[in-house]
Amino acid sequence: MKDSEVNLANVRDVHEEPAGINVMAGIINLKTLINVRDFSLPVNMNILVETDRRGVHMSRLVEAVRLNNNKHDCIENTLKSICKTLSEKMNKKCIIKAEFSYPLSYSDQFLDVIIEISSNNNQIKYIFKKIGITACPCSKELTDIGHMQRVILTVELESNEILDFNEVAKKIDECFSAVPSEYLKRINEAELIIKSQENPKFVEDVVRDCLKKFPNANRITAISLESIHSHDAYAEWIK
């Protein structure tokens, strides 16, 4: 036998040694391409399975991704298939989390999305994050000019149905004073500033307006990257 060859029949499988305590273990930061909505996007995945053995066979987790990848036209169904494959093969609980940036069809912006699928929960957990603009109502009242800043709005919710990412993003956009754009001529900049000034909002307003758009949300947070302070403003709502 060559030095590089290994006869697995004579090798003890240390992964399968009983450990006595259940833990969730697996792989994180697995990068792959997955059909998200009729097109492929780079996705960062975490795959965890319950185990009472010393180690998880990580190759089986990657194999499940390869077996189920691109069988569906939406990522939620692909993740469900991967989760089902692993939970049936290992007869254990499985949790999969996928993170990606979704290019919106109606603008040049992206919606950051995290999806979590669990073998013991039929609901899909979503976390959506998007950037918007606010103008300060206080300085607007004092000087007729509201200082402006970017706001990061995050919405966490669960759904039995697959959600339309563009529709979600549009609802989030309506919570801001205005939304940014990568390509702006001078006249476009002026229009965006005027729109922001005509709809000033505190970071608290952003969270409250978001709850009106997503009444079934579990958690909503907003971080205002303040333009005239070295600190940031923050608001949250938790069910």
Write a structural description:
The protein contains six helices and eight strands; from the N terminus they run ββααβββαβαααββ. By secondary structure, it is of the alpha+beta class. The protein folds into two domains: 11-99; 104-239, Urate Oxidase, CATH 3.10.270. The protein has an eight-stranded antiparallel sheet. Strand 4 and strand 5 form a beta hairpin. The longest helix is centred in the middle third of the chain and has 16 residues, at 75-90. The radius of gyration is 23 Å and the shape is elongated. It starts with 17 loop residues before the first strand and ends with a strand.
Number of domains: 2
Quote the CATH topology of the largest domain: Urate Oxidase
Shape: elongated
CATH superfamily of the largest domain: Urate Oxidase
Compact overview of the structure:
With 239 residues, the chain is an alpha+beta fold. It has helices at 58-68, 75-90, 137-143, 165-173, 186-197, 203-213, and strands at 18-35, 40-53, 94-103, 110-118, 121-135, 148-159, 219-225, 233-238.
